[in-house]
Amino acid sequence: MPRRHASAALALASAFSLALAFGPTPAVAVGAPVRNIVLVHGAWVDGSGWKAVYDHLVADGFHVTMVQEPETSFADDVAATRRVLDLQDGPTLLVGHSYGGSIITEAGVHPNVAGLVYVAAHAPDVGEDEAALGRSMPSVLAMTAGAIEKTPDGFTYLDPALFPKLFAPDLPVARAEFEAQGQVLAAASVFSTPLTAAAWQSKPSWGIVAGADQIINPALERFYYERAGAPITTIAGASHSVYESHPREVAAVIEQAARALGQAEN
């Protein structure tokens, strides 16, 4: 199944590239892009981090909505995403960063979802969870003792003193420090809940690798995307906060996916 949808995604991306190079012809007209885009943030942060990507997409005519998942349980976060997908008025491109990749993998079977974009994200299969997969290819975070703190009631956060260095080293220091102090604490269980659906098996997907990611091993990101048959864009030197530090490049991949999906629908 993934191979079939991999070929579809590659064909869509190729068609889009050809359209850019040569323009539409009477035989093959370029269709309107998928207009609706839903952005899903990862653990310890919130949807405000998408602001620069949002600005680029809206300026180019897309209807963009951010999910604010509570991070209280994986089921709650998937439900929050489905709730936003229910509000979309047509085909939608679902985008996830980091832990948000697990969310869009589960929620992406929603009928409004036309395709998926993974941004430095996890993409488990059915029965897998990102914590176990992360242990198979450890990140710098995983090898940094004491980096992840836990409250007595089982919620996790990244040590604020280490957040700028590990999560966002390519953001201005003051901004990274602000985010470190504004973390959304995530239930530890969200990382170890096995998935019951894998939307990348049935929906065209695209993937962005953050070349200098210290939260998720870039090799693991690439493994996920290759397994899903997703065209891969690597942003060299980018941290886990690639969607904030390189918003134009991230938005460009999202727009390419939206236009390719739109062409396929016409």
TrEMBL record:
Keywords: Signal. Residues 37-253 form the AB hydrolase-1 domain. Pfam families: Abhydrolase_6. The keyword Metal-binding does not apply. Residues 1-21 form the signal peptide. The keyword Ligase does not apply. Coiled coil: none annotated. Gene3D superfamilies: alpha/beta hydrolase (3.40.50.1820). This is Pimeloyl-ACP methyl ester carboxylesterase.
